[in-house]
Amino acid sequence: MFDFYFNFPLWFRLPLQGLAVILVLFPLAAACSMAERKISAWIQGRPGPNRTIAPILAWIPGMGVLQRLGIFQLAADGGKFTFKEDGVPGHVNKFYFILAPILAMIPALTTVAVVPFGAYLDSAGKLVPIMLANVDVGLLAVFAVSSLGVYSVILAGWASNSKYPFLGSVRASAQLISYELSMTLSVLPVFLLVNAPGGHGTLSLVDVVAMQSGGWHGFTAQSWHGLWGVCYLPLSAFIFLVALFAETNRQPFDMPESEADLVGGFHTEYGAFKWSLFFVAEYCHMIVGSGIFCLLFLGGWNLLPWLPLAKLAGLLGIAASPLLTGGLGIVIFLGKVAAFIFFFMWVRWTLPRFRYDQVMKIGWQRLLPLAIANLIFYLLAIALTQK
Amino acid sequence: MAVIQVSRKPLTFAERTYLPQIVGGLKTTLKHFFAPNDTMEYPEQRPAIPPGYRGVPTLVYDPHGREKCVSCQLCEFVCPPKAIRITPGAINPDDPTAHVEKRPQEFEIDMLRCIYCGLCQEVCPEEAIWLQNQYSTTGLSRAEMVNDKQKLYELGGTLPDEHFKWDKKKAAEGGGHAH
Amino acid sequence: MTDLLFNLFAVFTVACAAGVVLCRNTVASALSLLLCLIGVAGLFALLNAVLLAVLLVFVYAGAVVALFLFIIMLLDVQGGERLPFKGATLASGVLAVGLLATGVLSLATHARLPAVAAASPAGSTLRDYAELLFTQYMLPVQVVGFLLLAAMLGVIVLSKKFAGLEDIK
Ligand code: SF4
Ligand code: SF4
Predict the structure, then answer these.
(1) Higher pLDDT, C77 or B135
(2) Which residue among A277, A333, A334, B76 has the highest number of C-beta atoms inside a 10 angstrom radius?
């Protein structure tokens, strides 16, 4: 069905795919910001933004519900960010000051390329992942590219040439580097399990999901393939989760912003569009991070444990249609991601911020040893059981 | 004073992981997430004004329609931010209330200066100025925010009176008694 | 296509490498280093060694250069005065360039490289890479690891003041 697309030359397809990513991620990030406002409001007993509406749309009946949900606030916010005067303070290092928010977008938009967000069954009944670039080194690529995100923070703080942004960026980069370690160590057990002896060696996220898409075979050893990662790797999932919060600079780890002691951290000197780029980048990180967590530990596009997508499609009788199966997979996956993002926000509006020394302590003295112990435990367990 | 040193209980292991507290906090916020909003959506919903509320200062008529203010200017004098400006005026001799002698010719309260302290109401010997239940004053210019006499009476309206002191006085004068 | 990309990345890498040396601003220097590493990663990727490319970006670009920048900013190192060329500096520079040029030239003209194009290059997949690391190159890896450990301990000893260990000096 999509053959015509694959017949396009590569140079045409790649920019198209890239554009598609931007077109999907930007509104998603904007929707996240809207969701954040609404969720914070509901948790605090407020209605949240519920008045904005374009006068023309107000005539259409039923728009009131959307208005109450604050859907149009999104457009208003976007418009504001775009058309607001975008000042550059006089004392900053202009080149790097402008470069920083652009740099922030690069890892945010690039990492999506290797995240599979669904799958369909081809004519042979084989599961084909839907993703932009199916590379063997999958997760490592995500880590590698997202580790570049630290430069935007460092540069923003440094180029702002003022002390609060600088302190914020120093904190942020220290935090990013510290938690990257625990994060990487925490996912190793997953790939130890994925790479059964004799395999070709993979770091691909697709294979991780494949590992979690087994069916129910009674109480046999085979059945654990149907479970989700979080069931047999709870500690890994936990460490990854905490590190994810830290890596995305979310509460309770939002050191770089910490408006109580740092004004706004590296955001302080930014405004309008440049600020919104940081903002979107943060949400993109959140989306991608949630997606990776879902793939690693929550079964990716499988609806329930022991109910993989292929089986579900079979039950619904749509297995023959790649379009429907793919759509179903994407919906399930996005649903999980959305639930996870809700969790992010829920935590944000619940917990106070850690102190900086606590953040460092948790990272180096608690999480890292825990991650190493976790790795050694699973190393031994896998070595003993898979002999 | 004796100082009592309270020894703090050391945190248990569970407490040091922060996790039970985090879960507890998450439960609390989830409860609020589904709880109804506390916000009053203002222009549609209005707050109930309790009695004794000190709103915008206004001037009032007595039940016979006489303006009670005699422009003694005590309120102007007492007003801490000097929000009140009164131009006193005489009452026409052929007016039925001519024996009151004075009424304000112009009475202005600058609502950008007023601090709603209520001293004007406190000091007024005639119970002519009242802080009632208006809480919302808006205007597009500074001039609009100055309430003139007409506006003040509009806002104030008529309040009940127990004494009708000027009527009594007139009656007493008519009976041949000097006051 | 590959040739074009190779030329692109090669020029980019060399230009950035030159930038590292020539930039007056230390931050700009560090950023040039970053770009240079990314260029090298691109070259690796062109050689089908995707894993190496990703690791290079992850470890060097993601962490090491970030630390460089970090230190530069914390110490607020500025470009400052350019030191005048001394005879020794000049001589060692010329010597180094000469050696490098000789090496490259001799490699280009005389070396008989095995025909790599046909075989899939070692280290291209995760498995090959791991296998090489744990068999053929086991000893070097361990030795390098040990060296790093020693360096790390050295840094700790140098930077930290141990209260009770004054007599060590
Ligand atoms: S309002 Fe009362 S205090 Fe003020 S001038 Fe009138 S009578 Fe006097
Ligand atoms: S309420 Fe207070 S400030 Fe306002 S007019 Fe009366 S005396 Fe002045």
Answers:
(1) B135
(2) A333
Give me the number of domains chain A comprises: 1
> A74 CB contacts (<8 Å, ≥6 apart)?
A30, A31, A33, A34
What is the structure's pLDDT at C118? Answer: 43
For B25, which of A42, A44, A350 is closest by C-beta distance?
A: A350
Residue C45 lies inside a defined structural domain of this protein: yes
* Interface touch A351/B22, C-beta < 8 Å: yes
Atom index in ligand 1 nearest the CA of residue B70 equals 7
Q: Do A346 and B39 touch (CB under 8 A)?
A: no
Domain for residue C108, yes or no?
A: no
What residue in A sits closest to C76 (Cα-Cα)? A158
Per-residue pLDDT of chain B (179 residues; tens, 9 = 90+): 789 999 888 888 887 778 888 888 889 888 888 888 888 888 888 888 888 899 999 999 988 888 888 999 999 999 999 999 999 988 888 888 888 888 899 999 999 999 999 999 999 998 899 998 888 888 899 999 999 998 899 888 888 888 888 888 888 876 655 55
- In this predicted structure, what is the pLDDT of residue A1? 47
C154: in domain: yes
CA distances (Å), origin A42, targets B30, B36, B156: 9, 8, 40
Min Cα separation A351/chain C (Å)? 29
CA B4 to chain centre: 48
pTM over cut 0.90 = no
Given C78, C111, C133, which residue is the final one in a domain?
C78
Of A120-134, C26-40, C151-165, which gets the smallest average pLDDT? A120-134
| Position C165 pLDDT exceeds 70 | no
| Cβ pair A237, A297 in contact under 8 A | yes
Closest CA of chain A from C91, distance in Å: 36
- Rounded to whole angstroms, how far apart are CA atoms A136 and A206? 9
Residue A252: is the preceding peptide bond cis (ω within 30°)? yes
Closest by Cβ to C54, choosing from A141, A150, A180: A141
Range of the domain at A300: 89-385
Domain count, chain C: 2
| C68 plus C127 within the same structural domain | no
Q: Per-residue DSSP letters for A4-23? A: HHHTS-HHHHHHHHHHHHHH
Q: Is B69 in the pocket of ligand 1 (CB under 6 A)?
A: yes
Tell me if chain A has a CB within 8 Å of the CB of B23. Answer: no
A193-228 tens-digit pLDDT: 877 666 666 777 777 777 777 666 666 666 667 777
Residues of chain C whose C-beta is under 8 A from some C-beta in A? Answer: 27, 31, 34, 50-51, 54-55, 57-58, 61-63, 66-67, 69-70, 73-74, 125-130
Residue A302 lies in a domain: yes
3-state secondary structure B144-160: HHEECHHHHHHHHCECC
Q: Are B28 and B20 in contact (CB under 8 A)?
A: no
Residue B37 in contact with partner chain A when CB distance is under 8 A = yes
Q: Which domain range does residue C41 map to?
A: 1-78
Q: Is C130 inside any structural domain? A: yes
Residue nearest atom 6 in ligand 1 by C-alpha distance: B69
Smallest Cβ distance to A173: which of C50, C55, C66? C66
Tens of pLDDT, residues A364-384: 888 899 899 999 998 888 888
Of A262, A52, A244, which is closest to residue A156 (Cα–Cα)? A262
Which chain A residue has the Cα nearest residue C56?
A: A144
CB contact (8 A) between residue C127 and residue A154: no
